[in-house]
Write a structure and sequence with these properties.
The complex is a heterotetramer, with two copies of chain A and two copies of chain B.
Chain A: E1 5-12, H1 17-29, H2 36-57, E2 64-72, E3 75-82, H3 90-94, H4 110-117, E4 120-126, E5 130-138
Antiparallel strand pairs in A: 1-2, 2-3, 3-5, 4-5
Chain B: E1 2-8, E2 11-20, H1 22-39, E3 43-54, H2 56-71, E4 76-79, H3 83-91, E5 100-101, H4 104-110
Parallel strand pairs in B: 2-3, 3-4, 4-5
Antiparallel strand pairs in B: 1-2
The chains are: A alpha+beta, B alpha/beta.
Bound molecules: adenosine-5'-diphosphate (2 copies).
C-alpha cells in the first residue's frame, strides 16, 4: 500500500487542543475533496478520540496526545494515541452508554459515534501503557 | 462558544452558539445550571440554531439537564438543529427521550 | 519560562503540505487571539520556512519537515526543521535577493519576509545534517 | 488557486485567485506563459482582487513575467491588492519596479 501523504501531530493533553486537533485533521483530509458532511464526520470522530485520551487516558494529568494521519488513495487513516491509563476491557468500553466516569456527565457514546461516522474503528490498549484508536474512512469518488 | 438565556412563561430558552465539545462543556454546563437555579423554570428548550459543532460531550450536557428538569416534573425540548447536529442527536438515541421542534413557538405549545 | 501550550507537527516534504502547514500553525496560534494581520504574518513566515525545507533542504526528495510550536504567555515560538542539505553560509543565505536556485525563479526574499513579519528569526544549520529556523512573535495585548 | 485571462487592446489581464505559494506557482506560471505565448501581448496587468495569500514564491513568479515582458519593451502593472498582499509587495521591493493601480482602467491608461 503506497502512502500518498502522511502527517503526525503531537500536542499537550489540554482540552483547548480538542478543537485544534479536529481542525488539523480536517485540513489534512481536505486534499481528498471530501463533502462538508464527510468533514463533519471526521471532525466529530477525532474529537471523541482526543477527548477520551485527555479525560480517560491521562485523567486530566499532563501528557502528549499523538495523531497520525495517512492518505492512501481516497482513504484517510487516523490514529489517535495516548500513553495513559489504558483500557481494561475494550469490548465493554465500546458498548453504547458504558462510561467509567458518569460523575463527569459522560454519555458513554464516544465509541458509538466514532463507529457511526467512520468505516472502521480498531482499538489497541494495554493497562498502564496507553491506548491507540485507529479509524479509517474512504471517501466516495465523484462520478 | 457562548450561551444565552431567555424566559417565556415558565420555560427557560437556552441558546447555544459555536461549538459544544468537552472543552466548552464545563462553561456551558455551569452557565445553564446557574440560570436554572436563578429562574427555577418548569420546562427548558435548547435553541440550537447557532450551534455548528457538537460531539458526545454535548450529549452528556443535554442529558444531565434533562434528568434535572424531568425529576422536578418538567419537560425538555430541542429546536432548530442543523443537519450535522441532528445526526449526532439521532445516533446517540436522544431522539427517543427529547422531542425536536421546528421553532420555539411550536416547542412551547407542544411541551 | 513556563510553556503554556505546545504542539509538534511532522509531514512529508510535499509542496501540497505548504498550505496545510501554515493553516495548522495559524489554528494553534489562534488561542492567543491575534489580529487577522498578525495571523497573515505568521502564515507567510511559516510558508517561507516550509517552502525552503522542501526546495532547498530536501531538494524535492522525500523527507520529513517538523514544526514545533510553543505558546509562552503571549508569545508564539515556531521551529521549522528539516534533516536535509544544510546551509553553508547562513549570513549570505539571509541576504535579501540571494538565492542558490535562480533557475527556479526563486526571489531570494524568503528570509527577508520571515524577518519582516516575525520579531526574531534564528537559523541553525549544519551541512549534510539539516536546518532549523526558529521564529518568535509576541502579540500585542489588547488594552 | 486559479488564474484566468482577458485581453484588452494590447494588454493581457491576468486575474489571480486564491493562494499563490510555491505549490500553486508551477501551475500559475505555466498557465501565464502559455497565455503570453498565445496572445503575444505588449503589456500585462496582474489583477490581484481575488488573491488572498501570497508569499515570496509569488514574488518570484511576478518578477519572472516582468523580466520577460520588459525585455520585449512591454510594461507591467498590478491592480487591486488586498492589504496583506500589498505588504509583501512592499517588503520585497516590487514597489520600485512594478507600479500599482486602483483599477484595471487606470492601469491601462497609465501603463
Ligand atoms: N483513551 C482512553 N484511555 C482509557 N480509557 C478509555 C479511553 N477511551 C475510552 N476509554 C474508556 O472507555 C469508556 C467508554 O468511552 P466512550 O464510549 O468514549 O464514552 P465516554 O467518554 O462518554 O465515557 C470510557 O468511559 C473509558 O472508561
Ligand atoms: N532549509 C534550507 N536548507 C538549505 N538551504 C536553505 C534552506 N533555507 C534557505 N536556504 C538557502 O538560503 C537561500 C536563501 O533563502 P531565501 O531567502 O528563502 O530565498 P529563496 O528561497 O528565494 O532562494 C536559498 O536560496 C538556499 O540556498
Amino acid at each position: 500500500m503506497r502512502v500518498d501523504n502522511e502527517m503526525k501531530l503531537e500536542f499537550l493533553s489540554k482540552s483547548q487542543n480538542e478543537s485544534f486537533a479536529r481542525s488539523v485533521v480536517a485540513a489534512f483530509a481536505a486534499q481528498l475533496d471530501p463533502t462538508i458532511e464527510e468533514i463533519t464526520e471526521i471532525k466529530t470522530a477525532v474529537s471523541e478520540a482526543v477527548t477520551n485520551a485527555i479525560i480517560h487516558g491521562y485523567e486530566y494529568q499532563e501528557g502528549y496526545v499523538t495523531i497520525i494521519c495517512r492518505i492512501i488513495e481516497n482513504t484517510v487513516e487516523i490514529e489517535v494515541i495516548d500513553k495513559g491509563k489504558g483500557i481494561e476491557d475494550i469490548e465493554k468500553a465500546r458498548q453504547p452508554l458504558y462510561t467509567s466516569k458518569p460523575e463527569l456527565e459522560r454519555s458513554g457514546m464516544g465509541f458509538t459515534v466514532m463507529e457511526a461516522f467512520m468505516d472502521q474503528v480498531d482499538v489497541i490498549s494495554e493497562l498502564g501503557k496507553g491506548t491507540t484508536v485507529i479509524m479509517k474512512k474512504t471517501f466516495k469518488k465523484e462520478l | 462558544m457562548g450561551v444565552s438565556f431567555e424566559t417565556l412563561n415558565n420555560t427557560l430558552i437556552i441558546k447555544l452558539n459555536g461549538e459544544l465539545d468537552h472543552h466548552s462543556s464545563t462553561y456551558i454546563r455551569d452557565s445553564i445550571d446557574e440560570a436554572i437555579l436563578k429562574k427555577n423554570p418548569r420546562n427548558i428548550i435548547f435553541d440550537m440554531s447557532g450551534l455548528n459543532f457538537m460531539d458526545s460531550s454535548g450529549i452528556g450536557v443535554i442529558i444531565g439537564r434533562y434528568k434535572q428538569i424531568t425529576s422536578n416534573g418538567g419537560k425538555v425540548g430541542i429546536v432548530s438543529m442543523k443537519p450535522q447536529i441532528k445526526r449526532i442527536y439521532e445516533i446517540c438515541g436522544l431522539k427517543r427521550i427529547i422531542p425536536n421542534y421546528d421553532s420555539i413557538k411550536t416547542a412551547i405549545e407542544k411541551l
